[in-house]
UniProtKB/TrEMBL annotation:
InterPro entries according to UniProt: Methyltransf_11, SAM-dependent_MTases_sf
Keyword hit for Methyltransferase: yes
Keyword annotations of the record: Methyltransferase, Transferase
Organism: Roseateles puraquae
UniProt protein name: SAM-dependent methyltransferase
Length: 243
């Protein structure tokens, strides 16, 4: 009988040297991306360790699980009511990634923005994880044995839902080392990797915009003024704190 490989908790993994390194890269990317995104309502689904909306200035910002209690595939928001949705690794953890994306498309306004972070299976980190899964022994390198969603595969999904990708980039090219010392020694390869093999980074970032054919900008402006007066109804956590 083959022994099943042990799993590792995401929150615990983010405290490890590779987890901290990945989280720092993602925080820098999302801070730069959201600082100039305007609107009224923003929502982050997943990964509370990443403060994805800290640099954003929208008046209504929610983190699911802390500010809003909801199922990710049944969001308590009206259709076309949100200006920005963040999915940091939420698709990888979802029971049905397609259903989650469809729900996000529903609640986003026309021209609303979607930001996704995902682990790249076509990377050294992804390769080590897959090899460990095949051998079924030892602790996995990454926090979960679930299916990775490849970058190009996700772009196809977004296209089918009428999203246009505005920006995309990869990061974290260092080998899958566990120690801080070895990760630091390989820091030089991040610049080399981003230049010579950019699509092989351990993590990818995608920013997409929801397109609706026939939508007129005058209608968007009128809807935005109405949204400023009334926020969408949500189920708030009893421990809610203003962000």
């Amino acid at each position: 009988m083959t022994e099943k490989a042990p799993s590792i908790d995401l929150a615990a993994w983010l405290q490890t040297p590779p987890g901290r390194h990945l989280l720092a890269w993602e925080q820098a990317q999302v801070d730069a991306a959201v600082v100039d995104l305007f609107g009224f309502h923003a929502l982050q689904l997943g990964l509370p360790e990443l403060d994805g909306l800290q640099a954003n200035r929208m008046p209504h910002r929610w983190l699911a699980g802390r500010d809003v209690i909801c199922e990710f595939d049944a969001l308590p928001f009206e259709s076309a009511s949100l200006d920005l949705v963040l999915l940091p690794h939420a698709l990888e953890l979802a029971c049905d990634a397609h259903a989650l994306l469809r729900e996000v498309e529903r609640v986003l306004r026309p021209e609303g923005r979607l930001i996704v972070f995902g682990l790249n299976p076509a990377s050294l980190w992804g390769l080590r994880q897959n090899l460990g899964r095949l051998r079924r022994r030892g602790e996995p390198y990454l926090p979960r044995d679930g299916e990775f969603i490849g970058y190009w595969r996700l772009r196809d999904w977004l296209k089918l839902l009428s999203f246009d990708v505005e920006a995309a980039r990869f990061g974290v090219y260092r080998p899958p080392m566990r120690s801080e010392a070895w990760l630091h020694r390989w820091r030089w390869i991040d610049d080399v990797g981003s230049r010579w093999w950019p699509v092989l980074g351990a993590v990818y970032f995608i920013q997409a915009v929801k397109r609706v054919q026939g939508t007129r900008m005058i209608g968007l402006a009128r809807n935005s003024r109405l949204a400023a007066k009334k926020a969408p109804a949500v189920a708030l956590n009893n421990n809610h704190k203003k962000r």
